[in-house]
Every structure is written in C-alpha cells, then in structure tokens.
Amino acid sequence: MRIVAGTARGRKLIIPSNSEIRPTKDRVREAIFNSLHSYGLVEDLHYLDLFAGTGSLGLEALSRGANSVVFVDNNELSVNTVTQNLQMLGFIGKAEIRRQDAMTYLKESSDFDVAILDPPYEFEFWDQLLSQIKSKVVVLETSQNIVLNESWVVIKEQSYGQSNVQIATK
After folding, report:
1. pLDDT: is 120 or 9 the higher one?
2. DSSP code at position 10
3. In which domain, by residue range, is 58 found?
4. Is 11 among the domain residues?
5. Is residue 139 part of a domain?
6. CATH number, domain at 44?
7. How many structural domains does the chain have?
8. Model pTM?
9. DSSP 8-state class, residue 102
C-alpha cells in the first residue's frame, strides 16, 4: 500500500500483518481524493480521520495538501501504526493522534472541514455518529449504502467492490 498522490506520492505505508485492520485500497483512496479535490476540499483544510486504522486516508489528505489531520482510533495497534507512518512520511507536526472511542471523542471535539468516517463494516450507529459530527463535509466508507438524515446532502456516491463511498455536505 502506497500514498497515491501529493508530496509523499509512491511512499509505502506500514500495514500491520495478521490484524483486523482493514486499510482502504489505493484505488478507493485515489477516487475519494480526486473527488474531494474537484470540489476544492483538500488543500489547507482541517481533517478528522475517525476510525483511523492505518491512517491511510488521513495520510493521503496530508500528502495532497491538507493543513492538519486528527487521527482517532481506540485500537493500540492502529495508533502505533498511524504514529509510525506519520513519522516515516514527515507529517508528525501536522497531526494529532488520539487513542479514544470515536463517540467519546466527538463529544469533546472541535469543528473540522472534512471528516473521514471509515468504521468497521459491522458498525451500526450511523445516526448517532452523524448527528455528533462537527464538520461541513463527511466522507463515508462502508460496506452498504447508508441513508443519511435530512441535514446531509450526498454530492457523490460510488461503489468500489465491497466499499461504498459517499461524500456529503451540510
């Protein structure tokens, strides 16, 4: 797995073997960020990478010019992997890493320009999660199509094999 574009283009990411972490495939990340870029939603913006896993989505944002990313995951292996990838790519100064439950973090979080939501595929608390997000834009990567409440407007939706991606604005 590599960074697809930007200042760290082509750099390999650390991916733990034999773990339950499901990193986003390169072609899905490329499609997500090409769409975000076309809407002017990457450069100089503040991102939240919730359920960060390896951090590949937030790292892609940083490589493409995002101002900062907060990575949140409650798994120690994920937090360690994100930390190693940030150090290896030289992005540690543009990131905050939190080992914390996503819902707990959202209760105390500040506003973000873009929130990337890539929970485990069996995640069921979408209404609660989306009602707590303090962001203008959300990117959802799921195994199914999520019906968003009326406060969100889907601007892009695409399936890539098992991954369904939705980009929505308030």
Report:
1. 9
2. T
3. 26-169
4. no
5. yes
6. 3.40.50.150
7. 1
8. 0.94
9. H
- 107 CB contacts (<8 Å, ≥6 apart)? 132
Instruction: Kindly provide the residue ranges of all beta strands, DSSP E only, lying in the chain, ordered along the sequence.
Output: 46-50, 68-73, 95-99, 112-117, 135-142, 153-160, 163-169
pLDDT tens string 58-99: 999 999 999 999 999 999 999 999 999 999 999 999 999 999
Residues near 44 by beta carbon (within 8 Å), at least 6 away in sequence: 65, 66, 67
d(C-alpha 74, C-alpha 96), whole Å: 14
**What is the side-by-side order of every strand in the sheet holding 68-73?**
95-99, 68-73, 46-50, 112-117, 135-142, 163-169, 153-160
Mean pLDDT of 107-117: 94
Q: Which pLDDT score is estimated for 71?
A: 98
Burial of residue 57 (number of CB atoms within 10 Å: 0-12, 13-18, 19+): buried
Q: Could you give the C-alpha distances from 113 to 22, 26, 41, 55, 66, in angstroms and in order?
A: 25, 23, 8, 18, 10
Amino acid 22: pLDDT: 77
Site of tokens 């069921």: 124
Residue 38 maps to a domain = yes
